[in-house]
Structure prediction request, 327 residues.
Amino acid sequence: MDMEIPYTVEPRPDTGLTNPKLGIWLFLASEVMLFGGLFSSYVLLRSGADYWPNQADIVNIPLATLNTAVLISSSVTMVMAWASLKMNDFAKYKLYMGLTFLAGVGFLVIKTIEYNEKFSHDFYPSTNNFIGIYFLLTGLHAIHVIGGMVVNGFLWGPGAKMWKTAPEQFVNRVEVAGLYWHFVDLVWIFLFPVLYLL
Amino acid sequence: MSHTAEEVRAQVKTYVTIFAILMVLTVVTVAVSYIDLPSITQRVGLALLVAGTKASLVAIFFMHLKGERQWVTYTLVLTSFFVVLVFGLPMWTDNDHIVGSSKVIWDAGVPVPELPGHEAEVGDEGAGH
Prediction:
């Protein structure tokens, strides 16, 4: 028996939004608090420390810059995937969504190289507070990337069948997944200067 | 916000432009970190200014915040309020701490370099014996 979620296509009259759209924004608000709390902890750890290591000596700036470019590119392919559906071009959608997924893979591969580099230098979360919060923040972010890839992969593969049965609802699903994916990009935009450059 | 196919077609150009700007700003992010600004406040301020600009572009154009419904705005206004709190409370507390309480936060495992003042103190003690 199907449980119907109301207002997945038509906007709810009182909010003016579809339920998934309002839902994802509320979820993202909670995500802002999750990352905000950790960023705040970082500030407090650093400002309260007698000694803070030179972050540039520990992190890999070129790899992180590359990852920034990868993630920004994936945001563009994601919005292009949605735009392709809006323009009724399913083949282009498959292409752009596929690229978005691959960019996610690329990001994680680069991240793995970065992490391995840390471990090979005996840098572990327990080494000091900077490396601890570096692993916590980038790790939590990477988990978000993986979560987004699961959804994007589903919408690229088996979930794409919905384009035939309920196209408008499918477009909305892609848009909502996109909002989440852009948020993951947005978090990285702040993580990059804070953990790598300052 | 609903978009017609025609509107979306027009937006595609905007997406490409924003993408180019974001890439340039990424280079700017790295470049400004090499500027030797006198204070940490200025360095942090500049870095966050560039990051904030990039984040705003993503939110306004890719997340379609431009022209989005009021309810989304309400959500974000409420979130901003709590973000200020989550950043502000620890900092206000830290600036008003009981003497010595900020010492709770220290780097476990990192060799703390000898502070000049500390060294002198040890030296003085040694001289007393």
